[in-house]
Amino acid sequence: MSVFVRHHSGGVIIQGITGREGSFHSRQMLAYGTNIVAGVTPGKGGEWAEGKPIFDTVKAAINATGATVSIIFVPAANAADAIIEALDSNIELIICITEGIPVSDMMRVKAYIGHDENRLIGPNCPGILVPEQVKLGTIPGYVARGGHVGVLTSTGTLTYEIIQTLSKGGIGQSTCVGIGSDAIIGMSLVEALALFEHDPDTEKVVLVSENTGHAEMEAASFIGSTMTKPVVAYIVGRQNLELPGTVPLYESEHPSKDAVIESLKVAGVRVAWSPDHIPELLA
Amino acid sequence: MRLFEYQTKLRFAQFGIPISDGKVATTPEQAFQITQELNAVVVLKSQLREPVHLDADLIKAAQTPLEAKQFATEVLGLERNGTRIDRVLVEALNTIKLEFYVAVSADYRLGKPVLLASVIGSTYPDLTEHNGIAWEPINPLLGIRSYQIVSVASEINVPREHWRAFEEVVQSLYRCYVESDAILAEINPLILTGENVLLASGGSMVIDEQAFFRQPGFHTLSDSDNEPVCFAGSMQGHIGCITNGTGLLKAVIDLVHLYGSNNVLPGRCASIPNGASVEVLTRALESIAQDSEVRVLIANLFELSTPCDVIAGRLLLALQVIGNALPVFVRLQGEKSVQGTEILMAEASSRIYTADTLTDLVQHAVRFVNLEIE
């Protein structure tokens, strides 16, 4: 069982199960075989959604079900609170799908989580997919197939495109993980790479990232110094696109894409120039 | 989103940060009156969202109300960077003994806000370097500690008799930053006047757009689920791109650059949400069609919840609205992608092309443009 979801056996709860995103993706996950045991929506305890009991709090849900994973679909205005509630409940793994959480909220979450940041994946991420086994998030099951290549991304929809390209190229995946494209997230690229390095099911890793900052440089450094498994990387974002909400401000020297690619190459990483180029580099 | 200086100053005042005496004028007559009321030499600052303190044409001192009126007449209505100057901030000019730069900014690498400060000498501080910038990370659960402000004040040589006032300004700035959901709040410059008063003579704030929903006055600007996000309006190029997802958009743009060499360039692009409505698609397409250089459209949509035949129908309607003006290279992925693609290809009134892979899609579009521009 993939090192990313060794905690899965306890069952999954969905925070925000009754919302539009929560209900849709819960159905998709159930269809894939994910062991969803309950939902959490404050005020709707005692009701049912997608055939599962709803609880008012995460603690109540865990007490009743022994769940070990929570997936959060709570809208941005309350998502940080939902993460903190999950942290306080001591649940082992939290995956936050929600996009658009205010920066200051995530900074507070980050300060609160301290060194336990591996307990949180996301926010603004597609989650985890272990092909043919378990789906924890929004990655469509039909794009993936089982295999031995780990897929690690810090992007959203592009993740699905990459996985599909690999599958069509006959390359199966061990685990697909999207850690999220926000600047302030829980598990980092380095931490995820470390997990892949220790995953007996993974032989090689595909790393896909939007060149957002230092995370890629740190990943390159980690790969060069510590990883033994081959890594193929695809970095998007050559151009300086201004995204709303992330004004380039004071920051300890944002590395250029060329610098990132150079560091990756020095670390022994093969760098693809398009999604369709990745299968070739894995051969 | 960056606030105007006058808005920033209003906020600063609300949080107890001393500011220059002044008011906003929208007409030359108002500039005249305000100058009269202030009964002082004034400085007039054209209001743009980008800081204008370095642009000599847009900021000027005036000795008399008449001079103020004349300058206001010159600048009001001018266009800069695509926006019209419709306001001028008229402020009493202060004598300056010392000038500092003080800011609270989100540092995405650290995942924390940071306090930044520097003396302003003959050159403007370069914020991308640590040299000469006093710098303290802030724990968002604890706020700025007094000792941190002492450390900064000492490093930038704030005179000790003004340390108490400096601390108050910094704490107020931080409160303003937090309660405004800012990602940057800067006092630029913080001056020690001839009368030994510390005040914010200039300033700017950038508000986190993801927090608009809870910031009074910004609710209407809040991104609902269905707002298209358009990028890079300045990219005048041949190929407009639409995807659902910024990573995917960047990938498509990269590929256009790769296959276009330097002949064919990406133009205006948009990332729309999954399951976008006809309205959203139309808005995105209209925005792209406004880029006069754009010859073709690439649409690479990876749908999660909405079947592709439905998306295809919406896309056709949206294309109709823009008069089927542009040939479209489209690739639909997701549930019923085959049916969706068939619907698009069957539409006779539009020039619609498709491809199996992203690479092929972009290469075809580039080839099309190359033939056209020959």
Beta strands of chain B, count: 18
Sketch the topology of chain B as an H/E string, one letter per element. Answer: HEHEEHEEEEEEHHEEEEEHEHEHEHEH
- Model regions low in confidence, pLDDT < 50 over at least 5 residues of chain A: 240-252
Helical amount among residues of chain A, as a percent range?
A: 25-40%
CA(first)-CA(last) distance of chain A: 25 Å
Give the helix/strand class of chain B.
alpha+beta
Percent strand of chain B: 25-35%
Please count the helical segments of chain A. Answer: 9
**What's the alpha carbon Rg of chain A, rounded to whole Å?**
18 Å
Q: Based on helices, strands and strand pairing, what is the structural class of chain A?
A: alpha/beta
Net shape of chain B: elongated
Global geometry of chain A: globular
Number of helices of chain B: 10
Major sheet: arrangement of strands of chain A: 3-4-2-1-5-6-7
The largest β sheet of chain B comes out as: 6 strands, antiparallel
Radius of gyration of chain B, CA atoms, in whole angstroms: 26 Å
Mind explaining what this structure looks like?
The complex is a heterodimer of chains A (283) and B (374). Chain A contains nine helices and 14 strands. Chain A has 283 residues and is an alpha/beta fold. In chain A, the strands form two sheets. Chain A has a seven-stranded mixed β-sheet with strand order 3-4-2-1-5-6-7, sandwiched between helices. Chain A has a seven-stranded mixed β-sheet with strand order 9-8-11-10-12-13-14, sandwiched between helices. In chain A, helix 3 runs parallel beside helix 4 and helix 7 runs parallel beside helix 8 (257-266). The model of chain A is unreliable at 240-252 (pLDDT under 50). Chain B has 374 residues and is an alpha+beta fold. Chain B is built from ten helices and 18 strands. Chain B has helices at 5-14, 28-38, 65-75, 146-155, 163-179, 246-260, 278-289, 308-321, 337-346, 358-373, and strands spanning 22-25, 42-46, 59-62, 79-80, 83-84, 88-92, 96-107, 112-119, 134-137, 182-193, 198-200, 203-207, 229-231, 239-243, 266-271, 296-302, 328-333, 352-354. In chain B, the strands form four sheets. In chain B, strands 7, 8, 9, 10, 11 and 12 form a six-stranded antiparallel β-sheet that branches. A six-stranded mixed β-sheet of chain B has the order 13-15-14-16-17-18, sandwiched between helices. In chain B, strands 1-6-2-3 form a four-stranded antiparallel β-sheet, with helices on one face. The radius of gyration of chain B is 26 Å and the shape is elongated. Chains A and B meet through helix 4 and helix 5 of A and strand 7, strand 8 and helix 6 of B.
